[in-house]
Amino acid sequence: MEGFSVKSLYIFLDSVLLHHEQRSPIEYFGFKHIWKSGVRSMVSAIAWQLFLDRIPTRDNLRLRGVIRPEEERCPVCTAEVETSQHLFLHCRFAAGIWYKLTRWLGVVTILPPILCVVSE
């Protein structure tokens, strides 16, 4: 008897849930690039949540009635509402980390204004 694995769940969901031609561009991108990448499944899961905007940011918590509107500002920079894109890209703290990381890697980068998926 074989135990549970992320790969076995992926194979099951890929065959049962949707036919390939019915996938949305974000689902196609996720299954082609995120879930089939060589990174750990935990990293893929966070990337998938980020692309679906399911990270429990203050903005999402406010939309679900967990926090009040006046509590949705980013606690790190207090300049903007904490959305997924702000938290991972545009907060001064996050942007500083990305720029230091890319400089260390020797890569020049410009952070995108929004996260979007381009279908192929």
Task: Tell me what you see in this structure.
The chain has a domain of 52 residues. Helix 5 crosses helix 6. The longest helix has 14 residues. The chain contains six helices and no strands. Helix content is 49%, strand content 0%. The chain is an all-alpha fold.
Which bin fits the share of residues in helices? 40-55%
Average pLDDT, all residues? 81
Largest sheet: none
Number of helical segments with 4 or more residues:
6
Show unreliable segments.
Answer: none
Sketch the topology as an H/E string, one letter per element: HHHHHH
Provide the descriptors you would attach to this structure in a database record.
mainly alpha; 49% helix; globular; 120 residues
Task: Detail the topology: elements first, then pairings.
Blueprint (H helix, E strand, L loop, with lengths): L5 H11 L8 H10 L6 H11 L6 H6 L20 H7 L1 H14 L15
Summarize the structure.
With 120 residues, this protein is mostly helical. It has helices spanning 6-16, 25-34, 41-51, 58-63, 84-90, 92-105.
